[in-house]
Amino acid sequence: MLSYRHAFHAGNHADVLKHAVQSLILEALSIKDKGFSYIDTHAGAGGYALDHEWTQKKSEYLGGIAPLWQQRQQWPQLAGYFAAIEAMNGGEQLDFYPGSPKVAEYFQRPQDSLTLMELHHNEVELLRENMAPQGRRSGRSKGPTIHHRDGFEGLIALLPPTPKRGLVLIDPPYELKEDYQTLATTLAKAYKRWPIGIYAIWYPLLAKNVDRSGALKTAIANSGFQDILCAELSVSEQAQDFGMYGSGMMILNPPWKLDEQLSELLPRLTKALAQDQAADWSLRWLKGQA
Predict the structure, then answer these.
(1) Hey, where are the domains in the chain?
(2) Residue 171 falls in the annotated catalytic set
(3) Cα separation of 264 and 60, whole Å?
(4) Considering 15, 112, 171, 280, which one is annotated as catalytic?
(5) CB of 103 within 8 A of CB of 22?
(6) Domain 12-48+99-287 class?
(7) C-alpha–C-alpha distance, residues 61 and 52, integer Å
(8) CA distances, 22 to each of 113, 177, 249, 275 (Å)
């Protein structure tokens, strides 16, 4: 189908959850001098101008990153996340929002490897432009490897990576209901090739008649991984037929103390991003370290 363009949703509440978790994991990987691999299966355009007509059409960032940006000094646990945003903006003004590739780039060191995949032909061209050398901090890292390919297929082909420690971020658009099963099948294959990697999977929480998050969690719990942490944040009441009221992140092989970090972070994020009194959060182990 390939009609999804993330610019319409850049910087919304789902992006805040996704990129906050991504930043915490990359910070944990950066504690050791040893290099890490970062693989992004659905990289999108890499970064987004908040004044673009697509972003302005829904202006979802006004209910996501915008209010947090104004009070970022009050969020020391998200200092790395906000630093990645500042690096793309070059100052105090919030004109651009980094996609997951730009967040990863901020944490990249010379010994680390970034691999980005995007299938949409227009998005991958924007990705190449946004990740070009002039967009990187001078002398800090080498450029990413960018593949114009299906991220599910590409992930299996690229595993195990070098270096052999690292993070895979999987953030499909879920345009097709088959994406849910494809994701679970891909993770089962990935486990056989690279069982020690950290995998962070974003998924939407949708209206009751179309939500598939429960079945997805069950399928991934059976993919072979022994430690699976599940964080969810909802900003409004769940509708019956249409709409996304929140999102979740499943982290396979999460780094040490990520659960403790999220247990402190999620209640504050929920309060800050709430759209009505039904806003809520949850954090639990699907498997493993209870």
Answers:
(1) 12-48+99-287
(2) yes
(3) 25
(4) 171
(5) yes
(6) alpha beta
(7) 12
(8) 16, 25, 10, 24
